[in-house]
Amino acid sequence: MSTQIEIALIELRTWSAPGRRAALIAAAWDAGETNVSALAEAARVSRPTVYADLRSQGIDPDHRPAKENAVPVSPVTLEGFTGLNLDGQEANHFQKSVYRHLQEHPEQSSGEEAGRLIGLMDALRDYNNLRPRLQEERIAREERDRSLHRVEVRWEALRTAANWLAAHHDYVVTVADARIAIDMWEDRASGAVSVPFRQETPHQRAAYQQILAAGHPAIEPLTVDPAAEADRLRANLEQATEHRRRLAAETLALAGQGDGR
């Protein structure tokens, strides 16, 4: 770790003014610390909060050098095709492949081989576009679920907290983090459902089986409605939060009565 990164993280660990945290996270990022988990640990906040703070400082955390938080998915290539460059090199490769097939099999028409290769390119394009989006959705979903679980953990911790107000503040911050995590998951899930995965023709279905036979993992398009699911999660969170806010107010009122006696 460079000295510049170490200094930036030390300053981040000692932040106190609320408006200062986002600037310190951005400074650590600019110094070269682009590991979101490390930033979250140093700032004592959740990963969704780090993402939100970075974006508030004009930084897109999705655009960073490949590290452990990135999604390392290389496009699948079969028979020289990825399906991602159909207007360039792969178009020329397609023509050469059809011509070569005719040279090797003069008794066959060009239409069958052309149809097979078009199905292969279609399947590869959908697969190579959808697979990284599904991984991004999975990572965001896991973070969303962890954030919602932390809300319950923080609420339960209030029962035995020695410093109730500090523990309640932790709970309020965790609820805010969960809201951000839901928003992030909705964004990633919306990106995943927008990518088509066509299995409409025999050639496309055969090409997908060819992808699997080459050792690549199976994928399934999302069937969830991201907006509807996010609204449901937000509604549940806000309903529980409002109920707990009333309980906390009653607790504070009773505590105040006890102090006044």
Helix-strand layout with pairing:
Elements: H1 3-13, H2 20-31, H3 36-43, H4 47-56, H5 89-104, H6 110-157, H7 164-193, H8 202-213, H9 226-260
Helix pairs in contact: 1-2, 1-3, 2-4, 3-4, 4-7, 5-6, 6-7, 6-8, 7-9
Shape, principal axes of CA atoms? elongated
Task: Classify the helix fraction into a percent range.
Answer: 55-70%
Structural class: mainly alpha
Q: How far apart lie the N and C ends?
A: 57 Å
Round the mean pLDDT to the nearest integer and report it.
84
Structural description of this entry:
This protein is mainly alpha-helical and 261 residues long. The protein has 2 domains: 1-63, no CATH class; 75-260. The chain has helices spanning 3-13, 20-31, 36-43, 47-56, 89-104, 110-157, 164-193, 202-213, 226-260. Helix 1 (3-13) packs antiparallel against helix 2. It starts with a helix and ends with a helix.
Q: Care to give the gist of this entry?
A:
With 261 residues, this protein is mainly alpha-helical. Helix content is 70%, strand content 0%.
Features:
261 residues; 70% helix; 2 domains; single chain; mainly alpha; 9 helices
